Amino acid sequence: MSWTPEIALIAALVIPLIGGVFVGLLGKSPNLREAATLTAAVLLACNVAYLVSVTGERPELVYAIGETGLTFGFQLEPLGALFAAVASGLWIVNSLYSIGYMRGNGEKHQTRFFVFFTIAIACAMGVALASNLLTMFLFYEALTLSTYPLVAHKGDDKARRGAAIYLAILLGTSIGLLLPAIIATQFIAGSTDFTVGGLLASEASPLVASILLILFAFGIGKAALMPVHPWLPNAMVAPTPVSALLHAVAVVKAGVFAILKVATYIFGPELIQEAPASTWLAWIAAISIVLASIIAMSSNNLKRRLAFSTVSQLSYVTLGAMIAAPLALLGAALQIVMHAWGKITLFMCAGAIYTATKKTEISDMRGLGRLMPWTFGAFAVGAFSIIGLPPFGGMWPKLYLMWGAATAGQQALIAALILSSILNVGYLLPIPARGFFDPAPKEGLKKPGPVLAILPPVITAAGITVLFFLIGPLTDFLAPVFGAEL
């Protein structure tokens, strides 16, 4: 039997789930358990690479749900292929890192951790490849439920409280806001299918579109638009590999991916620009960008600082979606890729520092760069990318978002992006600068971090640089989705 795009669509979900079964069965043998995790990650990445190569064929598998008029199915298109490629590629690196971190810190329940990791990746694939809102919603909810045990992994009171907030906000927004928006879309358009040009483009008035935009923007809580963002910093009670998963591979990227896909295929750029709510939602995103950066600057705990940085950086995608100019939408799509690589680097560095020193407060990390040069060097590269400096990938999303805002006559929004970059400098660069230029701690390091906690962020830091030079193929792949002329 030949491998076909349709088989590959199903395999994208099945491979991580089968991997999870083997992880569970091999739990008493850590080496075999982790080999199963890595094997599943590599197989999934190869399968997704094949899907990316056949994206132009738009393969799909759609099943009718009885005689309800509803469908459940999968379809490959460029945005979904992009998200699937990011998630599957970074799963390999994050799995290597997880092995080093979990062993280095003697974490309990490691088998359970790796099993739920595989389930979360399968759910992320379902979100990426969904052919309609109903399918995306089901996998979106499954992703929330599968990551809850990861957030609560430590099992203490702080972990349970943080996980409860995580679950309450994400389920509350999706059931209370997102689900009504999907039901309304089905009622208005008679379908929830993702449609080129926008399913609602000729079906909804600007007023109705505004109401639905509000429901989608805040109902997709994983995008962490203020004020539905508190779940994200509260989820920092999880082990650092989970933080890296949440912020780079699965949860938050599922959120902003959903925002961008809804904007592109449910509303369409023209309807969004006609909807009055899009303007003030763009300003809410701009305020979130700046305010979250200010909170990040005032946070001494490294993971909390990075969490609020993520709240800020996610709002770039919402901003681009609400501007809805072709170049702004392209910038939003690029942000999904570049932020994933930059932020996973920063979180893995934070975990490597903790594993080697047990330090979590930034004020206690002065001079550590002299003892951990690879870790702090990778952190510096990740920081440069988040700031938007060349030659690192994070420069391109900001450039295209500003370009798109200018073409849409929204020059005032450019100020938020510029101010964000200035604040990024203020809360990110002092960490490696003080790490390298302050005197090394007299006590030194009791033990160097595990190689598998140090090597992965170095790999992703190198990837950030490579992505800077791959902007041509990336824009060629994505530009036709938005009708962007480069």
From TrEMBL:
Its main location: membrane. Residues 65-114 form the NADH-Ubiquinone oxidoreductase (complex I) chain 5 N-terminal domain. The chain crosses the membrane at residues 6-26, 35-53, 79-101, 113-130, 136-152, 164-188, 208-232, 244-268, 280-302, 314-334, 340-356, 368-392, 412-430, 451-471. The keyword Ribosomal protein does not apply. The keyword Cell membrane applies. It is a multi-pass membrane protein. It comes from the Bacteria. InterPro entries: CPA3_Na-H_Antiporter_D, ND/Mrp_TM, Proton_antipo_N. This is Proton-conducting transporter membrane subunit. It comes from Hyphobacterium lacteum.
